[in-house]
Design goal:
Elements (H helix, E strand, L loop, with lengths): L11 H8 L11 H8 L9 E13 L7 E12 L2 E4 L2 E10 L3 E11 L22 E11 L2 E10 L7 E13 L2 E12 L1 H8 L18 E13 L4 E11 L2 H4 L8 E12 L1
Antiparallel strand pairs: 1-2, 1-12, 2-3, 3-4, 4-5, 5-6, 6-7, 7-8, 8-9, 9-10, 10-11, 11-12
């Protein structure tokens, strides 16, 4: 099964806040943080930092017949205008900041968060894995006291489905007696070709386990929360959970066994 640490990974904006010394997650307009946002426009002002961690995660996806468990490492690093966020790497292209708000544009390359390992579930036997799609895209983030809004677009560059996905999300963070809490909700849109690749059944894939199935474009709805507690100056403990409600056409696919998916986990992270 294709498992990406999306339910618990350190959000890039949160990482920026950590680098800039704001424990609450609201980004401060100081010189070091401005250098991160403006990248090459402020090459004389650089900040390098990162978050290293790991979590134990339990999950159930559209494809899984049973509750699965896994150990997932996490790595988020910013070096000048470059960043790595687990299975995503990118460049901070542009940013604008004030004392109360910010906006940020990044471009990235990543492994898709969709897909399956065909060897692990009965209904997938005989198919090729679809969890190795490489995407290139762009993301716009805007945030402030109202929370944060993110819009992203990514296109397959590995010649698998040769199409695109789009995402929109909203997250709000606050401090409750020393605990950092973040709640988010969002949607993921898969084009017709992308949805067919991940959830459809082509003529050459039909078997006694699978009927022919043509998938339309799909819209999945997602919700997540993250609770983080500083243990020392550098160490943090966190707990997270995520839930995805799949599009009706995905629910009807012969490849899927669940109408929704979820993950839950606990972990430790170290800020450096």
């Amino acid at each position: 099964m294709n498992i990406r640490p999306t339910g618990c990974r350190i959000n890039l904006i949160t990482l920026l806040a950590v680098c800039c010394g704001s424990a609450s997650g609201s980004v401060l307009a100081d010189d070091s943080c401005e250098a991160l946002f403006l990248g090459l426009n402020h090459v004389d002002k650089t900040t390098n930092c990162g978050v290293l961690g790991a979590s134990i995660i339990g999950y159930e996806s559209a494809y899984t017949n049973d509750f699965e468990r896994n150990f997932v490492p996490h790595l988020s690093v910013i070096w000048e205008s470059l960043y790595i966020d687990n299975t995503e790497a990118g460049v901070l292209l542009w940013g604008d900041m004030s004392q109360q708000s910010y906006s940020l544009l990044t471009t990235f390359v990543r492994l898709s968060e969709n897909g399956y390992d065909a060897s692990e579930e009965v209904q997938l036997r005989g198919l090729e894995d679809t969890n190795e799609v490489v995407e290139v895209g762009a993301r716009f983030s805007m945030g402030g006291e109202f929370g944060e809004v993110q819009l992203a677009f990514a296109h397959d560059v590995s010649s698998e489905h040769k199409s695109y996905v789009a995402e929109a999300s909203y997250v709000y963070q606050w401090d409750i007696h020393g605990y950092q809490v973040a709640l988010s909700t969002g949607v993921e849109y898969l084009s017709k070709d992308a949805a067919q690749y991940f959830y459809g059944v082509n003529e050459d894939q039909v078997s006694s386990l699978r009927r022919l199935y043509k998938q339309d474009a799909a819209l999945n709805v997602q919700a997540r929360y993250l609770i983080e507690k500083p243990v020392t100056q550098h160490w943090n403990a966190f707990h997270f959970a995520s839930y995805t409600l799949y599009d009706n056409d995905i629910q009807d696919s012969p490849l899927t066994v669940n109408d929704s998916g979820y993950s839950v986990g606990i972990g430790l992270s170290y800020t450096f």
